[in-house]
Amino acid sequence: MNEWGAAGQGAAATAETEGGGGVHRSGFACFVGRPNAGKSTLTNALVGSKIAITSSKPQTTRHAIRGIVHRQDAQLIIVDTPGLHRPRTLLGQRLNDVVRSTWSEVDVVGFCVPADETIGPGDRFIAGELAKVARRTPVLGIVTKTDLVAGERVAEQLVALQEVMEFADLVPVSAVDGFQVDKLADLLVARLPEGPQLYPDGDLTDEPEQTLVAELIREAALEGVRDELPHSIAVTIEEMHPRQGRDDLVDIYAHLYVERPSQKGIVLGHRGARLKEVGAKARRHIEALLGSRVYLDLHVKVAKDWQRDPKQLRKLGF
Ligand SMILES: Nc1nc2c(ncn2[C@@H]2O[C@H](COP(=O)(O)OP(=O)(O)OP(=O)(O)O)[C@@H](O)[C@H]2O)c(=O)[nH]1
């Protein structure tokens, strides 16, 4: 087709080079959508490995965790942002700042709306914010969780989504049964500039291991108590290193912060039974992540009103 398409060195991608042999694209994408829209699960489905943290309750993905999709023709780096929401605390404001700065850095944004929930004010709030960047960054409309509803409902949701804002493309997907996940990858890749591979083959995420470990502990600690302590737990890794003289065992010392003394009891449980379960569960996940045995030491501490205190927020990594 076009011999010059692959020559590439710094040449801008054009429509003519699309599909041309040898063209390699690389760049960044992120998914936005209200909490629970399925963004993390979709990232995992695209990357093909559990790296982002998923849960059935909102607001669990706090850090911009990247998943990397390696393909012959492209490398797509997915940045997973926290959910955008109306801020009520300093933490809320910081999270929204992270989201907005992410949007301005990526090549394409995917706006996720679940097929099984009506489009509401939360989605329109996000669309309003997204419209501000849409002139520079293409936004794809994604209807997620199509496996949960009948075909007509998916069609209705696509129509409803189209009315919320102008999209570069619209696509329905299911991360659970894999419906159109490859199609979505194609649509995202098509929006990336021509460029070389940015990460080595096999890299799935560049998020520091300690951040992932802290997220796994937080996830385990929130299990079953989210209604009581939805946003009140933060985790820091104080120390993490292989045990001296052992190459099959990693020692991890972590602090679990709650906001008030009364919450400490909830996390600990009767005679510390709950914390023990949390530790066992987190340890299993961390062992799977690190591919090594793990000794996990967890301490619960009270950091009074950490969500409202800039000094505490900095200490906890926000
Ligand atoms: N049936 C079905 N469930 C899904 C699908 N994708 C996600 N889910 C479920 O929906 C819930 C929320 O998914 P997440 O991927 O954690 O959603 P999120 O948008 O990343 O949520 P936040 O991190 O809170 O912003 C989880 O219980 C998932 O298992 C899907 O394609 N089909």
UniProtKB/TrEMBL annotation:
Binding site for GTP: 33-40, 80-84, 144-147
Primary location recorded for the protein, binned into one broad class: cytoplasm
Key words, A-Z: Cell membrane, Cytoplasm, GTP-binding, Membrane, Nucleotide-binding, Ribosome biogenesis, RNA-binding, rRNA-binding
Annotated segments matching region Disordered: 1-22
PROSITE patterns: G_ERA, KH_TYPE_2
Compositionally skewed regions (Low complexity) per UniProt: 1-17
Region annotation (G1) ranges: 33-40
Region (G3): 80-83
InterPro entries in UniProt: G_ERA_dom, GTP-bd, GTPase_Era-like, KH_dom-like_a/b, KH_dom_type_2, KH_sf_prok-type, P-loop_NTPase, Small_GTP-bd
Sequence segments annotated as region (G4): 144-147
SUPFAM superfamilies named among the record's database cross-references: P-loop containing nucleoside triphosphate hydrolases, Prokaryotic type KH domain (KH-domain type II)
Membrane topology recorded in Swiss-Prot or TrEMBL: Peripheral membrane protein
Domain KH type-2, residue spans: 225-304
GO biological process terms held by the UniProt record: ribosomal small subunit assembly
Region entry G2, spans: 59-63
Subcellular location: Cytoplasm; Cell membrane
One annotated Gene Ontology cellular component of this protein: plasma membrane
Domain Era-type G, residue spans: 25-194
Spans annotated as G5: 173-175
NCBIfam families xrefs: era, PRK00089.1, small_GTP
HAMAP family: GTPase_Era
Protein name: GTPase Era
Gene: era
